[in-house]
Amino acid sequence: MKRFAVLIVLLVAVTLTGLFGVETTTPASTQTQYPNLVLNGFARVRYTWDFGPNKVDGFSIPNARFGIRGDISKYFSYTFSIEGANADPENKKMVYDVYIETTIIKDFKIRLGQFKYAFGLEQSTPEADIDFINKADVVSNLIKPTRDIGLQVSRDFNFSSVRSNLTLALVNGSGSNVQDENNRKTLVGRFLLTPLKGLTLGASYYDGTTGIADKKNRVGAELKLEISKLFLKAEFITGKDITVKKDGYYFTLGYTILPSTVLLVRYDNYDLYRELVDMDISRWTIGLNYYFGKNVLWRTNYERRMEKPAVKNDVFSTQFQVKF
């Protein structure tokens, strides 16, 4: 009931704040042809050496995504994408994104449909633009499924040189391409603050129910710092599935050696059962990204995993990606 009250208050606030600022006509001199569309997508080819026992090395196509984005009118647009490789086990079908977006209310962006909800830094980064071949363990395990069906509202707030953004979503909580499992809805929120040039701080919140009545919540904090050719990214996420508490974090340090070459180092840790000892998994990842222009990227990663008891399971991967 509280989530429906939040949604009603949000929609009323959005309407009262911006409705009267909407222009209903477009001058003839600035008219654009509608509808229009733009094709986009990306594909990856990967070779992996897995040092674990009984593992098979070889080539794979982890992603082959194709999408269409277009404007229906000055204030309405649509996005649709499919995943040919369907590498995401949480996504039950090829369809990834299907949503309508509108800016009909001044200063607000409203999204309705199936989309990648905003929670944390790595989840909110376009998948073709993440730094490493594999996401941090805490992100892969605590932020899934990555997409859901519902309504999302976002707005930028600027105070002098301080910039901020608030995004709120009300979704089913059951994931993509499936019907809701219960009558409860899931609330997702992300707040970003840029107090200084090159520094962004963020906080995220997720609260919902899966299955019939299984509580699921997540809280996250993030940081991104860019100084000349050096950047730092960090994220901490804690969560609870029914009674099981989990958490984890990562730190990524990157340096642009050349305009086309970026050296990366990441340490990430994931504790899949916080109440028990020695249930956490740590990993060092060293990466080198080489850009053949802005649309072709060669990533190379070496992952050194550490857990108790020790297991021989290091991974070396190299991957080509093209996007358009």
Structure description:
The protein has a single domain, classed as Porin, CATH 2.40.160.10. 8% of the residues lie in helices and 57% in strands. It has helices spanning 2-18, 121-124, 137-142, and strands at residues 36-50, 58-71, 76-83, 95-102, 108-116, 147-159, 162-171, 186-196, 199-210, 214-227, 230-241, 244-258, 261-271, 280-291, 296-306, 315-323. It has a 16-stranded antiparallel beta barrel with strand order 1-2-3-4-5-6-7-8-9-10-11-12-13-14-15-16.
Structure keywords:
324 residues; mainly beta; Porin; 16-stranded antiparallel beta barrel; 3 helices; 8% helix
Topology, please?
Layout: H1 2-18, E1 36-50, E2 58-71, E3 76-83, E4 95-102, E5 108-116, H2 121-124, H3 137-142, E6 147-159, E7 162-171, E8 186-196, E9 199-210, E10 214-227, E11 230-241, E12 244-258, E13 261-271, E14 280-291, E15 296-306, E16 315-323
Antiparallel strand pairs: 1-2, 1-16, 2-3, 3-4, 4-5, 5-6, 6-7, 7-8, 8-9, 9-10, 10-11, 11-12, 12-13, 13-14, 14-15, 15-16
